């Protein structure tokens, strides 16, 4: 198996081994995370540090819950409104051809942080899957997080 050296993932590994929730540190506007895009009354959106594609955003409630049914009606409505706002923002700035929008509930379903519900909003373009993931087992993301944050936040 070929190996891709990716030292920037060490932060993710450290967070995972220390069981820190990447979402709970962002409950107020004074949080130090620089990749926050929007805040609403009960939710916030942030760029995914390890994106599947340019503009991969996660939308999460402030409250640490693992299941949709644990959200109040107000929290659920706010969360979905922010997902829609996120998609609208991405439409304007990136003009994707489509989206994958989804929730992984439970570790076996692929949830990296199973204890804190979050919704992935992943922009897609025709032809965005090329030979790299198929032959090289490597995904190419063409923009840095800083450039993407500047574009989407501005």
Write a structural description.
The structure is a single chain. It is built from 4 helices and 5 strands, in the order αβββαββαα. The protein is α+β, with helices and mostly antiparallel strands and 154 residues long. The protein has one domain: HIT-like (HIT family, subunit A, 2-Layer Sandwich), CATH 3.30.428.10. Strands 1-2-3-5-4 form a 5-stranded antiparallel β-sheet. β1 (36-39) and β2 form a beta hairpin. The chain starts with 9 loop residues before the first helix and ends with a helix. The model has no long low-confidence stretch (mean pLDDT 82).
Number of separate helices: 4
Radius of gyration: 16 Å
> How is the largest sheet built, in terms of strand order?
1-2-3-5-4
Strand content: 15-25%
Derived structural class: alpha+beta
Please state the average pLDDT score: 82
Q: Compute the separation of the termini in Å.
A: 41 Å
- Biggest pleated-sheet summary: 5 strands, antiparallel
What is the domain tally?
1
- What's the total number of strands? 5
CATH architecture: 2-Layer Sandwich
Could you give a short description of this structure?
The chain has helices at residues 10-17, 73-94, 131-135, 145-153, and strands at 36-39, 43-47, 57-61, 98-102, 119-124. The chain has 154 residues and is α+β, with helices and mostly antiparallel strands.
């Amino acid at each position: 198996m070929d190996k891709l050296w990716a030292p920037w993932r060490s932060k993710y590994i450290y967070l995972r081994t220390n069981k820190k929730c990447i979402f709970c540190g962002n409950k107020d506007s004074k949080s130090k995370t620089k990749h926050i895009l929007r805040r609403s009354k009960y939710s916030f959106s942030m760029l995914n540090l390890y994106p599947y594609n340019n503009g991969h955003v996660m939308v999460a409630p402030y409250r640490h819950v693992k299941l949709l049914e644990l959200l109040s009606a107000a929290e659920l409505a706010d969360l979905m409104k922010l997902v829609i706002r996120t998609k609208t923002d991405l439409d304007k700035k990136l003009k994707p051809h489509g989206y994958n929008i989804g929730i992984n509930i439970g570790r076996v379903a692929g949830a990296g942080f199973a204890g804190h519900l979050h919704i992935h909003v992943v922009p897609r373009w025709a032809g965005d899957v090329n030979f790299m993931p198929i032959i090289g087992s490597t995904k190419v993301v063409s923009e840095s997080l800083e450039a993407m944050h500047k574009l989407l936040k501005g």
